[in-house]
Amino acid sequence: MPKAKSSPESSTSAPRSRKGAATRSRLLEAAQQEFEATGFLDARISDIAERAGLSHGSFYHYFESKEQVFREVAEVNEALLTAPEVDPEPHVASDQPELERIRRANRRYLQRYRDNGPIMGVIEEVSRYDEQVNAARIQRQKHFAERAEQAIRRLQTAKHADPSVDPAIAALALGSMIGRFAELWLIEKWADYEFDAAVDQVTLLWANAIGLDESAK
Q1: H-helix or E-strand containing 107?
Q2: Cβ neighbours of residue 157 under 8 Å, at least 6 residues apart?
Q3: Taking the CA of residue 122 as centre, how many other CA atoms within 13 Å lie in the half-sphere pointing to its CB?
Q4: How far is CA 92 from CA 87, 88, 89, 137, in A?
Q5: Which of 89, 90, 102 is nearest to 217 (CA)?
Q6: Do 183 and 82 form a contact (C-beta atoms < 8 A)?
Q7: pTM, full prediction
Q8: Contacts 24+ apart (CB under 8 A), 186-194
Q9: Local confidence pLDDT in tens for the 217 residues of the chain
Q10: DSSP string, 117-166
Q11: DSSP helix/strand/coil, 57
Q12: Cβ atoms within 10 A of the Cβ of 81, count?
């Protein structure tokens, strides 16, 4: 579970001390644990405070409501999915084949989604009726679509991808495919696929969709 970070602009009382920041962080982590265990609707502020080892009243010093703390938990986890690779493997060459770049990106996304599956399932559910949570989810999708579009344009310029493919449409469609696949597979438990096989298959679909020259570097 990712360590929750506070969002000062959305806090009820932005903590000015190290102790206050630590307490707020504890509440965010406890809230994520409670949402994972019981879901959003059944989670109670009193249970969140108890998990954090705090009184019920302490919660309201840092957050206005259950909705606010959930939105911050959602923001933290959505940001995690789009964060760059922190420690690239040292043996990975900078001139690795384009197909391998795509595979690594897909693997990283699916790995992070899987590792945080319990809370991602709650986020997907709440995003259907909470505009702020949905906005964070849409921002994640836009991030991947923009990166994918740039990659497709670069590959087309280098004559490594089909020039007849519309980069913007392809990026949105392929990003949606990966996102929905992750939800159905890892949250809805559509089927029990072997992880590496799933990564390879979505990567193959991605490459075939843009007409990638698999020998390209």
Answers
A1: helix 98-115
A2: none
A3: 23
A4: 11, 7, 6, 30
A5: 102
A6: no
A7: 0.81
A8: 186/110, 186/113, 186/114, 186/117, 186/120, 187/117, 187/120, 187/121, 187/124
A9: 554 444 444 444 455 678 888 999 999 999 999 999 999 999 999 999 999 999 988 999 999 999 999 999 999 998 888 888 765 555 555 678 999 999 999 999 999 999 999 999 999 999 999 999 999 888 888 988 999 999 999 999 999 999 999 999 999 999 999 999 999 999 999 999 999 999 999 999 999 999 999 777 6
A10: HHHHHHHHHHTTT-HHHHHHHHHHHHHHHHHHHHHHHHHHHTT-S-TTS-
A11: helix
A12: 19
Measured CA distances, 71 to 36, 141, 197 (Å): 14, 17, 34
68: nearest Cα among 111, 132, 113: 132
**Residue type for position 31:** A
Phi-psi region of 122 (alpha: psi -120 to 50; beta: other; left: phi over 0): alpha
